[in-house]
Specification:
alpha/beta, seven-stranded mixed β-sheet, 15 helices, 21 strands, binds adenosine-5'-diphosphate
Length: about 500
């Protein structure tokens, strides 16, 4: 996509957005709306329906009715596959509109959004469409005289609560396997990034998904998100977001119908650089990208840099140089490498983390503040804090901003100890040319994904899921399908 196309799309007005319930666009039952501010310039972009608990109940009822009458689950696999493949094609065909709309809403730099948002969402939907007629039941190895069959059945109604950093990609991680297995879904997009995901949901209907199979309700997490999580008629709840909200969702499930809850809760992922890394200049560049792209608003961001003491000073200087070379600014320019922070609230929270880090003995080596305030938008300089103690807040808590915490280590054992000394366990990386060391580190670092001599980029073929307080269950790969099915045994006397 060229700059002229982006500029034309950004100039278009964005129509107010209603819920999508039972195949229809409907306003909030009390007429309420939420203002949508663009993080690019702080100005009003449009409004979305401010859902009520009654709206959510209506969406869940529509999803339940659609599931129970078999209008989707009862279709032959080939028919479901055709609809999902058509949907993927429509997402790809509408990629420029979806990407620009999403960036106007959430501030991610367009170069990254184009790849990570509609591009990967279409690929993910296609992957699960292709998978759906390759999921077989089993015959159990029983004694003679009986037949044990294991059926894989859809769970029924899936609730999906989506965050604002990559709404299309993360939305597709849940929608792809959930719909492929024949479930109905109720989506709850994030307040500050609903627009592109609502449009993607609408495209599913255009592709032929029957009304009621995919419903989407916008509004506040504490109202409509909570109503979804408390519903007595939702069978499985899938979520990506903060640990605090994840905890609440488990409480809501316990207070209601004990629905299964799968959580992906972010991390404080260690990027571990040994002196024997094959290419330190490349490692420094990728380390900067691994924390600063999308302003650090990436669940797998390499937010802790652990550097072998012998190369610490030179390496940090290289990371700082790489960060300084990254262009921060208007996310709708193709040459921007770091866009806007999603909201002013998030930006202020990032700045408080930097203050606390200094109070705890850290040194702001680069960045540290808000920039480009004259635009009216929310921008933060890529920030590097050195001398961060392993127990400091900046080493323990997820900022979800462009802030890198640097800590030196002396030995492999110490690197592992520091890497694993948080409550989280989502991602990590090790940079080394030692084959044995690389494999030892992959085993030792407590995380769902450990990169070796790279950071990020793991595609849909491999699972992503956290351990510890980073969550449970996996998105992506064939393993994700397990979340959206029930096993049922048939025990038959012959
Ligand atoms: P962040 O703090 O990064 O915005 P959240 O976990 O608050 O992350 O948001 C992720 C998603 O969770 C959003 O869609 C949001 O609306 C939703 N959410 C927030 N609070 C609740 C809640 N109490 N119940 C259900 N969903 C919620």
């Amino acid at each position: 996509m060229d700059q002229a196309t982006i500029d034309a799309l950004r100039a278009t007005a964005v129509a107010p957005r209603n819920h999508l319930i039972d195949g229809r666009s409907v306003p909030a039952s009390d007429g309420g709306t939420l203002e949508v501010l663009s993080p690019i310039n702080g100005q009003r972009l449009t409004t979305t329906a401010r859902g009520t608990a009654a709206d959510m109940d209506r969406a869940v009822a529509a999803a339940r009715a659609a599931f129970d009458d078999g209008r989707w689950a009862g279709q032959p696999p080939a028919a479901r596959k055709a609809v999902l493949l058509k949907w993927a094609d429509l997402i790809a065909a509408n990629a420029p509109e979806l990407a620009v709309l999403g960036v106007r809403d959430n501030g991610t730099e367009i170069a990254m959004a184009l790849k990570a948002e509609p591009g990967s969402a279409a690929a993910t939907i296609r992957y699960y469409a292709e998978a759906l007629d390759k999921v077989y039941g089993e015959i159990a190895p029983t004694a003679g005289g009986v037949l044990g069959l294991i059926h894989k059945q859809p769970v029924g109604v899936v609730g999906a609560i989506i965050p604002w950093n990559f709404p299309l990609m993360i939305g597709a991680w849940k929608l792809g396997p959930a719909l492929a297995m024949g479930n109905s879904v109720v989506l709850k997009p994030a307040e500050t990034a609903s627009l592109s995901l609502m449009r993607m949901a609408e495209l599913a209907l255009e592709a032929g998904l029957p009304p009621g199979v995919l419903n989407a309700v916008t509004g506040e997490g504490a109202v409509v998100g909570a109503a979804l999580a408390r519903s007595m008629d939702v069978d499985v709840l899938v979520f990506t977001g903060s640990g605090a909200t994840g905890r609440r969702l488990l409480e809501y499930a316990a207070q209601s119908n004990l629905k299964r809850v799968y959580l992906e809760l972010g991390g404080k992922s260690p990027n571990i650089v040994f002196a024997d890394a094959p290419d330190l200049a490349q490692a420094a560049k990728v380390a900067a990208q691994g924390i600063f792209r999308n302003s650090g608003q990436v669940c797998v961001a390499g937010s802790r840099l652990l550097v072998e003491a012998a190369i610490h000073d030179d390496f940090v200087a290289e990371v700082a140089a790489a960060a300084a070379a990254m262009r921060v600014g208007d996310p709708l320019r193709l040459d921007t490498q770091i866009g806007a922070v999603n909201s002013e609230t998030q930006l202020l929270q990032n700045l408080r983390f930097v203050e606390t880090a200094q109070a705890e003995g850290g040194r702001v080596y680069a960045g540290g503040g808000r920039i480009l305030q004259e635009t009216g938008g929310y921008y933060m300089a890529p920030t590097i804090v050195t001398g961060v103690a392993p127990d400091a807040a900046l080493a323990q808590r997820e900022v979800f901003g462009p802030v890198l915490a640097v800590t030196p280590f002396e030995t492999e054992t110490e690197a592992v100890r520091i890497a694993n000394a948080t409550d989280y366990g989502l991602a990590g990386a090790v940079w080394t040319s030692g084959l044995g060391r690389a494999h030892r580190m992959v085993r030792a670092v407590r995380a769902g994904v450990v990169h070796v001599n790279t950071y990020g980029g793991a595609d849909v073929t491999v699972p992503l899921g956290g351990v510890g307080q980073s969550g449970n269950g996996s998105d992506k790969s064939l393993h994700a399908i397990d979340k959206y099915i029930n096993l049922k045994t048939a025990w038959i006397k012959l």
